[in-house]
Each structure stands twice: as C-alpha cells, then as structure tokens.
Amino acid sequence: GESGTGKELVARAIHESGSRKAGPWVSVNCGALPEALLESELFGHVRGAFTGADRDREGLLVRGQGGTVFLDELGEMSPAMQVKLLRVLQEREVRPVGSNRVLPIDCRFVCATNRDLMKQIAEGSFREDLYYRVAVIEVVLPSLRERAEDIPQLVSVLLERIGQRVGREPPRLTQPALRKLMEYDWPGNVRQLENVLTKAVVLCEGDRIGPGQLGLPGRPPRPDSDVHSFEQRERARMAELLETNRWNVSKVYLQMGIPKATFYRKLKRYGLDRKA
User: Fold this and answer.
1) 189, burial (CB in 10 Å: exposed 0-12, middle 13-18, buried 19+)
2) Second CATH level (architecture) for the domain 7-134
3) Which residue, 121, 93, 117, is CA-closest to 107?
4) Per-residue model confidence as pLDDT tens digits over 69-124
5) Could you tell me the pTM of the whole model?
6) Residue 221: is its pLDDT beyond 50?
7) Whose CA is closest to 76, among 20, 128, 34, 15?
8) Domains of the chain by residue range
9) Are strands 172-173 and 108-111 parallel, antiparallel or unpaired?
C-alpha cells in the first residue's frame, strides 16, 4: 500500500490477534538503515566483527523469538541483503555478523512495501524467489482516495483517539466539514487525515469543527483533460495486464495494487470484457 495507508497498524493488529500476541513485537524499517547496519541490526554481531563492535549484540530477529517481526519498506532492501534474508526465511536460523555459529529463530514475519514488487522483479532489483517466499498471504491496503466512503467511520475512530491523547472531549465535525474531507484526495492517506484532525481538535474552542477549521491546503481541481488522460492510461494498462495474464483477475489486481472490489468497478467503468 501507499505511504500512510496504515500498514504497520494492520501488521500490529495481526500480531495482537494471533497465537503469538504474548510474544515480542519487533519493527524494522529496511529503508532507514544502510546495508551494513541493517545486517547487524537484524542478525546481531559478535565482538570484533567490525570497527566499533566492542561487545556481542543480539539481533532483532533473535529478540523476536516467539513473536512477530515486522519488516517495513522491504522493497528498499539491497540485493545482497535480500539474499541473506531469503536464507534466514528458508533455514529459520541466523548467523550473527563475524560469527561461525548459527542461532535458530521462531517468529512470524510480516513484510510491507509501498513499491510495486512485480515491477521491481521485472527490472531485476528485487528477487523473485524472495517475493514468493514472503507473499504467501497478501493484504493490499487501498489509498484513502479509493475508499472515501470509509472516511466518516475513520473520522469517528480518529477523533476518539485524538481526544484521549490530548485529554479533552473531541469536538464533532459539521456536515460541510465532513463533506470537505470526503472530497479531498488525501495524498498522505490516513496519516495525513489524522494530522489534519489533530490540528483541528487542538485549535477548536467549541464543540464543532467547521470546514474552515480543517486547514486543508488549497488544491485546484484537476482539468478534465488530466482526468481523461489518466483514465486512458489506466484502462490501457488494465487491458494489457489482463491479456498478459490471460484474464486471471486475481493476478492483475494484485499487480496493480488495488483492492478486488475497486478493480471490478474499474473493469465495469472502462467497459473491459473478455468477449470484446
């Protein structure tokens, strides 16, 4: 899913609702660390493994024993690290940097990315064998602009959470304010929505939030020509993927990174028919 769609929240919900909820939760952003540091963080290291390694250090995968390890931004991982991670997933063991000893691990892995991994595989920047190792069960998180109908419920949940955080009864949104939220296209997704609501709650002096208090950046409507151009490109891509995958729609909507229901709506809107 796109940045801000709540991938880590979903991963944590999987952890907390599963059989490993009593175990540790370990989160790692694979795109935030250079390769050498990421290897040491994940697998650990022994004293003297590299300059500055003055003591043994346990890796995060070992710390996650019996729990869940969340690997965020998997698509940012270097090819060399992909090979090492693949071996860990296959053998269920890790070798700390600088050590000849292997340590068994037993944890659930949940991975996330905002990239199109199938495209990266085609470009040679992501390993196909690693993809099929981690993509046993895929959950595609749609962008907020693709599920505007969910915004009222999200607003209710977020306002309650924000109220608890700032220590006040959360104000309610007027209908015009809610309508403005539903019409906005949310490039920052749920994260941006929460930030907008937090600011509105903090600055609100009464018990109602109006459209003028949302502070949404002005964004001129897209010209019809831009919309039509986008739809033409999207229709052409859908048609090409359907043909390439012999109308296996499950593969196509996963490759496009959109929910199944959204895919079928677009299929109908664009008049794509296998018989055509």
Assistant:
1) buried
2) 3-Layer(aba) Sandwich (3.40)
3) 93
4) 999 999 999 999 999 999 999 999 999 999 889 999 999 999 999 998 999 999 99
5) 0.68
6) no
7) 34
8) 7-134, 144-213, 224-269
9) unpaired
pLDDT at 130: 95
Q: What DSSP line would sit under 105-130, residue for residue?
A: ---EEEE--SS-HHHHHHHTSS-HHH
Q: Which fold has domain 224-269?
A: Arc Repressor Mutant, subunit A (1.10.10)
Q: Which residue has the tokens 């993927």?
A: 241
What's the mean pLDDT when you consider all of the chain?
Answer: 88
Distance between CA 29 and CA 113 in Å, rounded? 10
DSSP 97: B
DSSP, collapsed to helix, strand or coil, labels residue 68 as: strand
Highest mean pLDDT among 9-18, 67-76, 208-217, 230-239: 67-76
CA distance 82 to 156: 40
- Residue of 10, 23, 125, 108 lying closest to 74 (CA atoms): 125
Give the whole-angstrom CA distance, residue 63 versus residue 44: 10
- Residue 253's nearest CA partner among 142, 169, 120, 109 is 142
Place of tokens 């607003």: 155
Name the H helices within 100-219. Answer: 117-123, 128-134, 151-166, 175-183, 189-203
Q: And the tokens for 67? A: 């729990």
Which residues make Cβ contacts (< 8 Å) with residue 43, sequence separation at least 6?
A: 59, 61, 84, 88, 94, 95, 96, 97
Structure tokens at 34: 């250079």
**Token match 């992501």: residue?**
126
Q: For 144-213, CATH number? A: 1.10.8.60
Amino acid at 15: H
CA-to-CA separations, 187 to 154, 217, 218, 243, in angstroms, rounded: 16, 11, 13, 31
In Å, how far are 97, 121, 222, 262 from 258, measured between CA atoms? 39, 19, 22, 7
